[in-house]
Design goal:
CATH architecture of the largest domain: 2-Layer Sandwich
Low-confidence stretches: none
Helix content: 25-40%
Mean pLDDT: 94
Oligomer: single chain
CATH topology of the largest domain: Fructose-1,6-Bisphosphatase, Chain A, domain 1
CATH superfamily of the largest domain: Fructose-1,6-Bisphosphatase, subunit A, domain 1
Structural class: alpha+beta
Number of domains: 2
Bound molecules: D-MYO-inositol-1-phosphate, calcium ion
CATH class of the largest domain: Alpha Beta
Strand order of the largest sheet: 4-3-5-6-7-8-9-10
Length: 273
């Protein structure tokens, strides 16, 4: 196994581009839609993209495990401690409505550590990528997180879990944090692809992201981009994020503390405005 994960990242980039091309080609064509929940849907393209990605990665790295949004977890063979974490189409609701924001997200985890990640936006041909120790790149160019040091100058992004209509607690359904951040930040965007929104923080396109309803495949690849771009990643308490823990704050190094305070204000009832 290579220690630099160059070969793995190279393959992830090729496969993300190939899956992205498939999604782009079919964007705007009518899709078979199945509902997993009231809002949570899956199109034929989620499945086709996932099949393509897993097929290509399995051929390149036989024995590796997979953890993908539509098919769930599949352990690797033998002693393998390598797992590819895949969102074949992040932004499915957008895709089904021809709203042009979606991505393909592919991460590699080795012995519990995220070591490589690729997030691809096929409509703009933007590739956000990183591997452990190699820095973060956007379309092959090295990039870092932004230098913005105040929330009032920060462009933030967030998202809402699919339980937003059934979860009554505003701290859990994100309406509480959203109301606070939108008053103190320069602006808050909610574009519908968490993988893209998080990856943008790592390359300095946006300054911070938070969400409390994430799944591992929404965040894994983009977390590598943020970490390698010099950013900070925690849960809402400031502890190291857990892929299964649903929560993530991803920021440049300078606004993390302020974001933690705004999130904590809902719990402690502190005024932030
Ligand atoms: C969703 C998107 C959305 C986020 C949700 C995710 P999907 O993923 O990333 O931005 O707010 O939490 O579930 O279902 O489009 O792959
Ligand atoms: Ca997703």
């Amino acid at each position: 196994m290579s220690a630099t994960f160059e070969r793995e990242l190279g393959q992830a980039l090729r496969v993300a581009r190939e899956a992205g091309a498939l999604l782009k080609e079919n964007f705007g064509k009518s899709q078979e839609v199945e509902y997993k929940g009231r809002i949570d849907l899956v199109t034929e393209m989620d499945h086709r993209s996932e099949e393509l990605i897993i097929g290509r990665l399995r051929a390149a790295f036989p024995g590796d495990g997979f953890w993908a949004e539509e098919r769930g977890r599949e352990a690797g063979t033998g002693q393998s401690d390598r797992v590819w974490i895949i969102d074949p189409l992040d932004g499915t609701v957008n895709y089904a409505h021809e709203y042009p924001v979606f991505s393909v997200s592919i991460a590699l985890q080795v012995a519990g550590e995220l070591v490589a990640g690729a997030v691809y936006n096929p409509l703009l041909d933007d590739m956000y990528a990183a591997r452990k120790g190699g820095g973060a790149t956007l379309n092959g160019q090295q990039r870092r997180g932004s230098k913005v040091d105040k929330l009032e100058q920060a462009l933030l992004a967030t998202g809402f879990g699919y339980d937003v209509g059934s979860e009554p607690d505003p701290e859990k359904n994100n309406l509480g944090p959203f109301a606070r951040f939108i008053r103190v930040a320069q602006a808050v965007r909610r574009a519908g692809s968490a993988a893209l929104a998080i990856a943008k923080v790592g390359v300095g396109r946006t300054d911070g992201f938070w969400e409390g309803g994430l799944r591992p495949w929404d965040m894994a690849a983009a977390m590598v981009v943020v970490g390698e771009g010099g950013g900070l990643l925690t849960d809402y308490t400031g502890a190291a994020p857990d892929l299964g823990g649903r929560q993530l704050i991803a920021t440049n190094r300078r606004i993390h503390e302020e974001m933690l305070l705004v999130l904590a204000a809902g719990v402690h009832g502190t005024r932030t405005t």
